[in-house]
Description:
Blueprint: H1 2-21, H2 27-33, H3 39-67, H4 70-87, H5 94-122, H6 126-151, H7 159-175, H8 192-195, H9 207-236, H10 242-246, H11 248-290, H12 297-306, H13 308-326, H14 332-361, E1 363-368, E2 371-373, H15 375-396, H16 403-414
Antiparallel strand pairs: 1-2
Amino acid sequence: MQTSLKIKLGIFMFLQYFIWGSWYVSMATYLVKTLGFAGGQIGLAYGAFAIGAMISPFFVGLIADRYFASEKLLAVLGLLGGALLFTLPKLTTFGAFYPVLIIYCASYVPTLALGNSLSLHHLANAKRDFPLVKTLSAVGWIAGGVTLSLVLKGEQSAVQFYLAGAVSIALGLFSLNLPHTPPKKTGKDVRLGEILGLDALALLKKPSFAIFIACMFLICVPLYFYFVNMNMYVTELGWRYTAAKMSLAQVSDVVFLILLPFMLKNLGYKKTIFIGILAWVTRYFLLAGSVNNSGIATSLIFAAILLHGVCYDFLFIAGQLYVDDESNERIRGAAQGFIAFILWGVGNFVGSTLAGKSQALHTLAQPQGAIAHDWHGIWIYPAWGAAAVLVIFLICFRDPPKKATADVIAGRKKEGLEVP
């Protein structure tokens, strides 16, 4: 049964991230080159995903946990998302495009939290099996980018939204095959704090957890400079098939997702997450070093792309597992919603907005051929910002005690015995 479950969850993750990978990387290039949107508008467009993430906990708490089985709600959201994605190509002004994009993101982002929650609920050994299931999400992202770039050649075309819309409908239909996951709070009087996921705030009483959350928010500020600006950068350098080449990031994602359980087992959370933040520092210094360095620019950029597995898995996935470990059954769903709110919500919104403003600020008055931005200025600030977060995390964060050790200590305290 677990084998069948993991196959179904893997297919779900593949389709879910195929959708994301087929438009998210290339949207900035389409908006600038085809629709002529300005840098600040690009940042706001990417911030639409953050607004969706901030709405998601309210939506899941008010509706998903009380009235609908998770697999049925995923089906509805997939079909609705497909209809919204088919609408976006018809909208060519920012005033029309932006609100529909926000509504779409508000329908898509809950599928991330619901999919993770459903997986963690049904997998017998989540710490071992969840990263392996998530490898299919990286494969899906690769497939989305390669299909858009090599098959459709659609980085600067609205075809990316039609592709994502078709797969979103497929995701909705497939979701009905996922294991039945009934609502947890049917017929219960649920407090507003529980609906909004505020119960998870109790975890902030733990100093290391509070430091972890602060560092996750702070690293998201420089982190989203990559997602907002990277495709535009390589496009201005004259790269072709940019979405396909950037999907090499997800090749490394697959490799490091497989390695993640071994890293966590042998290094623990602190060292693993430290390596993830260090990878972001390295990535941005590589990108800054590639500017005006034609001899090795391509090699430095590919190195930055291939670091993605360490950047994402050792930070986001390891962080989600850390939150899961620190939570109990009562607040586990709220805690996962809380970390999603930080990573994809408020952190995304602040980071994407600043990245768009930085792109506008570093737009050259007189373009140098195809180069229309001061890319060294765009990349060097997030490099130093990520370095500052790295120092804070290294000094302040402490690994949680092993569960067995914690239980022994609690037992000794209860019996009035000395704790070594």
